[in-house]
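Design job #97: recover the sequence.
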């Protein structure tokens, strides 16, 4: 997106918020009118339904447009009306209850003066780029037109192609001939008194789409979450929406779909059976290999790097527990999932065997479908656990130790292959002043925006980590200094063009970058190359910041 289009998008977002604020007085007046009717006598159910619907929309849209106090107040009143509608309508017979509610309704206008959270603009969380030739299509079903347009604009800044629907019937008709990559719905999207989870369940074309489903809602009750889970939702987000968090979850879902094949090592003395298992796993899209010499198990693991070992329990020469014990002696593989696959049916022996280093037990014979399902879910869980251990909770990037290890691995691989690898060290300029001036919550948004920008602008083969605080490291395999400089300069310029807002004040940030390429340091390992990149970063800082500098041997 060029600067002219960015400026136009930013102006449009500002106009949307201004339009919303301009319409708020009329909306609050309408609510007060309904409240006046409530205090004057017992209302009919239609009036209560309208009051509930208006408060629900206000609770969701207010916070998204920066009016958190208004959103919270509307949500509280909405809950009260919901209670009357469901099980305590008799409470409205009390004139004092009606008058108190009417007064609280009239007080909503006083909350408009407090904007107590950062306003997330379309440019705040980063300028995304889909992979070359890739277009991610998102259907957004939201009956609040202004909120839907705002959300669509913000998702569009991440290169999601958003198609909006204000009626679920329109989305149902579109689903007869089209299929998006993701469906995003308001969980309380109302149609004839039903919420979205129930309406969605009644629309077979939507359910048959088979694409990832995310719900957004103003409600955080257990049963709504259960129903969303039953419908297969992969995310449940509360209004006012945390846009960076929503985008992060969307990115995670698509990254999982593009994740590398799961790797399984099969250890079984029955070669025909082991080959059958291998072919069944290969047919399911996994990588599988068979260990033919048990004594070479550690060499095989180091070379193949499996994510799960599928092992027979009884084998001549070495038993499954023997080999599991050997694996567990190595710290690097102490958490590698090991699953016994054996014809042993004695429960006591199964339990005893699992006490010697294994994680689970599957019994032969086993169908191909059951084998594939069992392996897939265990590897996926292992990947999730590894991500929690090795990845930073704020950014989703690799932690300090993990990115250092990746740098070392890639430098070693580059030296072996004769191909270059470049390391980039990035630092947010004057970040302490951001925290001091705007608070750590805003600082976290700035840090998250760098992470998203790096993930979306770099190649899939590149590895990115949060080195510490506001510092980041990017490992760029098969990338020489010239191309690395081009990539980092693009990221530097894009980050410098972003605008952040807090309580009506706009500000920007810049990045300094230090680069080091293995071709210039042929005898250096990963740690030494990181030091060279860090020294280049220091030169960039000392030279005025907001620039990319390359390291050169002295």
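Job complete. Output follows.
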């Amino acid at each position: 997106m060029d600067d002219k289009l960015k400026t136009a998008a930013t102006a449009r977002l500002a106009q949307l918020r201004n339009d919303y604020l301009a319409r708020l007085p009329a909306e609050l007046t309408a609510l007060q009118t309904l409240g006046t009717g409530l205090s004057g006598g017992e209302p009919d159910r239609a009036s209560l339904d309208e009051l509930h619907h208006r408060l629900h929309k206000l609770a969701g849209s207010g916070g998204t447009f920066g009016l958190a106090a208004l959103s919270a107040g509307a949500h509280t009143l909405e809950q009260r009306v919901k209670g009357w509608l469901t099980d305590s309508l008799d409470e409205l017979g009390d004139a004092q209850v009606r008058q108190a509610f009417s007064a609280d309704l009239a007080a909503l206008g006083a909350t408009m003066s407090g904007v107590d959270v950062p306003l997330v603009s379309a440019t705040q969380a980063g300028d995304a780029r889909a992979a070359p030739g890739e277009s991610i299509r998102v259907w957004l079903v939201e009956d609040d037109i202004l909120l839907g347009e705002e959300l669509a604009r913000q998702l569009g800044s991440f290169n999601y192609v958003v198609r909006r629907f204000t009626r679920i019937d329109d989305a149902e008709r579109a689903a007869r001939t089209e299929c998006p990559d993701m469906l995003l719905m308001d969980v309380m999207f109302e149609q004839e008194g039903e919420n979205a989870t129930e309406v969605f369940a009644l629309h077979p074309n939507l359910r048959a789409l088979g694409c990832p489903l995310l719900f957004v809602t103003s409600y955080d009750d257990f049963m709504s979450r259960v129903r969303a889970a039953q419908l297969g939702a992969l995310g449940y987000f509360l209004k006012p929406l945390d846009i960076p968090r929503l985008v992060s979850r969307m990115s995670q879902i698509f990254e999982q779909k593009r994740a590398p094949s799961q790797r399984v090592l099969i250890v079984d003395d029955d070669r025909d059976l082991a080959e059958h298992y291998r072919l069944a796993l290969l047919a399911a899209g996994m990588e599988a290999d068979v260990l033919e010499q048990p004594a070479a198990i550690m060499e095989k693991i180091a070379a193949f790097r499996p994510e799960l070992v599928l092992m027979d329990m009884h084998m001549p020469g070495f038993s499954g527990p023997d080999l599991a014990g050997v694996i567990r002696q190595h710290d690097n593989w102490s958490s590698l999932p090991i699953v016994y696959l054996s014809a042993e049916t004695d429960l006591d022996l199964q339990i005893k065997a699992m006490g010697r280093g294994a994680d689970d037990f599957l019994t032969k014979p086993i169908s191909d479908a059951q084998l594939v399902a069992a392996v897939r879910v265990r590897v996926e869980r292992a990947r999730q656990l590894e991500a929690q251990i090795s990845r930073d909770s704020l950014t989703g990037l690799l932690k300090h130790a993990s990115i250092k290890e990746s740098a070392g691995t890639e430098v070693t691989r580059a030296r072996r292959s004769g191909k270059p690898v470049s390391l980039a060290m990035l630092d947010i300029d004057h970040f302490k002043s951001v925290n001091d001036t705007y608070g750590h919550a805003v600082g976290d948004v700035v840090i998250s925006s760098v992470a998203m920008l790096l993930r979306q602008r770099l190649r899939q083969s590149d590895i990115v980590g949060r080195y510490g605080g506001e510092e980041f490291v990017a490992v760029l395999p098969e990338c020489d200094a010239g191309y690395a400089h081009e990539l980092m300069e693009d990221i530097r310029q894009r980050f410098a063009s972003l605008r952040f807002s807090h309580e009506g004040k706009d500000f920007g940030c810049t990045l300094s970058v230090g680069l080091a390429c293995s071709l210039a340091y042929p005898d250096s390992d990963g740690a030494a190359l990181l030091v060279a990149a860090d020294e280049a970063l220091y030169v960039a800082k000392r030279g005025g910041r907001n620039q990319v500098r390359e390291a050169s041997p002295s």
